[in-house]
# Entry
Amino acid sequence: MTLDRIHTSHAGSLPRTPELIEANAARTFAEDGFTLERTPEFEGLLTAAVIDLVQRQKDLGITIPGDGEYGKAMSNAVDYGAWWTYSFQRTAGLELTDFNPILAEPVRSEPGAIKLTSFADRRDWTRFAAAYQDPESGIQIGKNATAFPSATGPISYTGQEALASDIANLKSGLGAAGIPTGFITALSPGSASRIGNDYYATEEEFIYAWADVLREEYKAIVEAGLIVQIDDPSIAENWDQINPEPSVEDYQKFTQIRAEALNYAIRGLPEEQVRLHICWGSWHGPHTTDIEFKDIVDLVLGINAGSYSFEAANARHEHEWALWQDTNLPAGKVLVPGVVSHATNVVEHPELVAQRIERFASLVGRENVIASTDCGLGGRIHPQIAAAKLESLGRGAQIATDKLFARSGTLL
# Structure
């Protein structure tokens, strides 16, 4: 990747085509009740959709495209969970049980003994219960393509065929568009382990079991010459899922296990091909109980990725750019800040996008900034608006490039 410009990417999920949503909705489930069957017809549609998507990203000014997570099933236009639920399709040892992490009974934590409560018992969700329960509030999370299973036996990776399809589809799209590399997302151990567990003796044992499972995805993606983006909202998002609010120190200890498990899963992989994505949850709620980035930034930088993707454009977190005034970015590392948001239908002006890029470049160096989106756009905003945001991202990056590289006399 040449360093003669501000490169652009995004956080993974992009709106599916109506045809792909319809095809996913028409797929049948295997006997387990949550694994979606694949057919040659579906595979052909998926390949064509990814090839077209990569070209559309290029046309909008994205220089490091992804497959839009098209291989991760979404059977509804609004779906905030496809980045996670895909893993159920690729893991043995799971079964449908009575446990549902969204609607489970609340769990209370104590100092020194943190436990995750149910999603419905999140502190932001209970503080604004009327808004979250109002179907006209605009903060509903849609419908997932599959149900949530639990681990009832030893888990192991079974997604080789599906992952090979994802890799082949993206590489076909990159080749057709003449783009040297792109990225595929994969789940983190800490986020994967938030389903039910009826087999492993401890939470830590369960997290590390997921680390062994997901390492297979990470390795296959980087060995294909692609970038793996590891989605780990649990690093930041879990804070809101602990009730009552814990101390920052207790939360850091709780999260350290997840960071260490991820480092175990990516051990030996080339850091320049590993991107970590954290977020505070992509639903369009108030987010008044998000943890401050300054309280977890050391944990994030302690994960052995080459680049770090995070929310930096939405109204709850944009101010946190200032922490990089006092936080040293380790040598060779790259920031991938969101400079357009998934949480608003307002399309950011390219000049604002450029200002946000320049702000980070002034703090960590232009060569250490890749402009991106806060979180995935797919399943969260209308496809037409998502395309406009990517176009604004591309145009803003060009404005920033003209300013940042012209100053040093670099010719583009």
Notes: The first strand starts at residue 7 and ends at 8. The chain has one domain: 7-406. The CA atoms of residues 130 and 314 lie 23 Å apart. Strands lie at 7-8, 91-95, 150-157, 183-187, 196-197, 227-231, 274-277, 307-310, 334-340, 370-373.
